[in-house]
Amino acid sequence: MTIKAINTQISVSPQIRPEDMADLAQQGYRSVICNRPDGEGADQPSFEEIEAAARKFGLETRYLPIVAGKVRDEDAVAFARLMDELPRPVLAYCRTGTRSATLWSLSEANTLPLADILSQTKAAGYDMAGVVRRIANGGRTPTETVEDARFDIVIVGGGAAGISVASSLLARKSDLEIAIIDPADVHYYQPGWTMVGGGVFEASDTAKTMGSLIPRGVHWIKSAVAAFEPKDNAVILDGCRVVKYGRLVVCPGLKLDWHRVEGLVETLGKNGVTSNYRYDMAPYTWKLVQETQSGKALFTQPPMPIKCAGAPQKAMYLSADHWLKTGRLGDIDVQFMNAGGVLFGVKDYVPALMDYVKRYSIDLNFFHNLIAVDGPARKAVFEVKEPEKDVRQVELDFDMLHVTPPQTAPDFIRVSPLAEAAGWVDVDQTTLRHKTFENIWSLGDVMNAPNAKTAAAARKQAPVVAENIVADINGHSATAQYDGYGSCPLTVERGKIVLAEFGYGGTLLPSFPRWLVDGTRPTRTAWLLKERILPPIYWRAMLRGKEWMAKPEKVSAAREKAPAA
């Protein structure tokens, strides 16, 4: 008997036998649903035998037989009815458990998000890809047409990566029918939020309406994606609308998992708890920095990957710089709470950063991961996982707490056929083409290439994807290659930045000659780039397909120079 728990209320299994009833009762099950018709197999016990054995141990039983491969809409309704009336937890079984898992998935279609249904059944070992449209349609078989729309290129995500790649595609082939799928009304220049939290930018300067940025001629489908059907070249939207594509680009960004830190959501934006990772919170960061006169300021960094791995430090350095210049730093205990084991992943930039750690008297606490916050009590709990030591927890008081939230791929990506085991879109790290589905590409934060997740990386990736898609349309192999470039302008003080630029394997990839910008040390030139030059480049060049300093390198040349990843 192999029982697979979907959640605490329902488990499914292959065929069970009368002698299993004692064990089921021992495990705490209170009800059994049979979804296998009697007589389906020669060695199959009848439902009456199961029912009689179950009665001896106080288990409720119900018979809801389903012919293999023929789960009807009314069957799912009947299953939901049984789940409502039976004491839980329930064990449902058939020959393999698949029919029972399918019935549960359809019965929960109007209760749970599609991604939750897919993730729970996937974790139990059952793939619901065959009924995903029915789940998206509220558990009912769709009666509308096979497709609602069709485009040459469909782009999932209207962030920096999505709009940039759409513009780069049109710059190369203007007759393409392209659609961007994104439910958001507002597009944000997220790299600017560090500057908002440091009192340099206004939050409003980092936001524009999505409609004003979608390239002319590109269709904007204002909807959320529910699921992918790559074998049918289809994207399923909320409400079970079907969008077909010739080629697909996946770049929806990351999910900020605020709920993974206990108590964080309830206290964010008050009680001294803030984060530059949210548009509406970055101004509160600056407010706290101005108001904090003394006490303890904690700055957290969760386990990788996160977008802009330097952002947690940027907030800390700008805050400490303000306190130093206003004469308050001596009364403020600044602590960096990093779940990782190093200050920065590329060693060439660490010496310059350590100079500022010493200047601001910052205490570095490695292997400390924030797991809970009590805002009213001003307490933060960290799980400490130091090498070769027992895991422990520490509780710290705080007067100001800047939180970088845990981050994952969006739910609809993690449960999709596009994702690898860790939940990221599985691409070739040089061509950015999907490893399994040849008409799918991915860029930005959601794919699994081992590069820094930054807007600067997307700026270099968009032309590569565009170039390779057009080559594919023309019947050619990939012509452009991505070298892993990412950039992290580390704002170490107001007016100076350590401009970290690197690629795969930590190889330094500076954009400027060393005499102009030495990226391994703080410079005012790099600050000018961050404050004055990069924002207009983002709005007026990158998002419009003008590839300033981002022209894709040809595969042949790139292979000769590419470092080992």
UniProtKB/TrEMBL annotation:
Residues 151-268 form the FAD/NAD(P)-binding domain. CDD domains: PTP-bact. Coiled coil: none annotated. It holds the Pfam family Pyr_redox_2. It comes from Roseibium salinum. The keyword Nucleus does not apply. This is TIGR01244 family sulfur transferase. One of its GO terms (molecular function) is transferase activity. It comes from the Bacteria. InterPro entries: BLH_phosphatase-like (IPR005939), FAD/NAD-bd_sf (IPR036188), FAD/NAD-binding_dom (IPR023753), Prot-tyrosine_phosphatase-like (IPR029021), Sulphide_quinone_reductase (IPR015904). Residues 4-110 form the Beta-lactamase hydrolase-like protein phosphatase-like domain. Keywords: Transferase.
